[in-house]
Amino acid sequence: MPREIQLQAAPEVAAKPELLAAHVAKLFQVSVSEINHVVILKRSIDARQKAIKVNLKVAVYLNEEYKEENIALPTYKDVSNAQEIIVVGAGPAGLFAGLRLIELGLKPVIIERGKNVRDRRRDLKAINRDHIVNEDSNYCYGEGGAGTYSDGKLYTRSKKRGDVDRILELFVGFGASKDILIEAHPHIGTNKLPKIISDIREKIIEFGGKVLFDTRVTDILVKNNEIEGVVTQNGDTIHSKKIILATGHSARDIFELLDRKKIHIEAKPFAIGVRAEHPQSLIDSIQYSCDFRGEYLPPAPYAIVKQVGGRGIYSFCMCPGGVIAPCATSPGEVVTNGWSPSKRDRSTANSGIVVELRLEDFKPFAKFGALAGMEFQKSIEQKAWHLAGETQNVPAQRMIDFTQTKISTDIPKTSYVPGTTSVELGQVFPGFITQTLREGFVEFGKSMKGYLTNEAILHAPESRTSSPVRIPRDNFSLEHVQIKGLYPCGEGAGYAGGIISAAIDGEKCAEKIAESLVHV
């Protein structure tokens, strides 16, 4: 059996197998020829001291054969003639629900309003180049959901390691690098995710599932508080007694539909702010305390949290070596998000810097009931669109200028392709958000020397951090508290916060459906 140990090594040693083997041999006080193989099980960076180290957990094969284990996909059954379960949304919650349903002998019918990953690219090009927003196909809607073109971060705060490992192994089985199994903060990359997502879809179809693109759900059929099926924009009716509703955090029309039909939903706190872009070299110098990162360290991320006036302000979805993207889902609004390619090799780093909101903040929109937070969110996005010139340009300001309420006389070209318009960002937000952001950036600058700089450009708004609505469900059955057969799922229902947690939630909903059918 291999011996597992934890150790620290210099970045170059951790990156080169021959140097790592020599390092391990020294620790074991044996000849390097006795080290047959060293497998890295976990890896993280410790940058707290000037001499940066890599924390490693490794399995050491001493004078014994090493065989690489391949990650195999589960055994899927042909479900062509099985009971049909509707899954609304082909994001991570919907796709992983579909895979799990097939494992459990049920036939998923996945309904996606947007296009497949390949065709979706044309609509992304249109929003970047021509400022045209397709309401059904954009950075948020389409195969793979918002995660496909927003970085592919796989970090989760879920404490159930077995669930997390299962999802990571499924990603590897569908073509992701095995590195995601060992990194402390795993990441696939926007350039690699589309192929993985399309392979998942092909597997679902291969084993008898259905995937319907360009198909928007316009009604949910309910009789005596029980699900009957859905109606699409073409007027087609698809019948099923079970629906997994995995429509993501931006499907406002679904929230409005539920509200109209008196299906219980609740306003939910979320967070709003800006997306801050720095030169990656500056973030490297702050985080690694060095003038040049070198080839053995990855582009540095950062995570920061502060309290300002009793309200939290924190970094969100930080993208080292990444790009800011236009993520509006309707004409007449602007929205930002960030992503990184797998190598994280762009010259800029960006992160959402967001302020926590409370339900009482939505009081000016109280007439909208459970949709008050959504209308609050919408009002900021629409104001930003108006202030920036009523295109997909975003309002932008240099960071120190923002803290001092100065309009920036010039905004350099940033990674945000549609373009920027110099705006005093205090005009975009309600006063309490503006003040919290201004004081927060000053506090950030005290903790991260060099962070508060006019080299950093703020883009507004970062507004789709999580769903502004919760669709309540029973804690045990995962069914909606009012409607039998409706399974609110993932980020849009308020039960997830990223790719991994959404995928886990999709699987759990599929499992609960299978359990309920066994007991019928």
Automatic annotation (TrEMBL):
InterPro entries: FAD-binding_protein, FAD-depend_C, FAD/NAD-bd_sf
Span of domain FAD-dependent protein C-terminal: 269-465
Pfam family, one: FAD-depend_C
Domain of life according to the entry: Bacteria
Record protein name field: FAD-binding protein
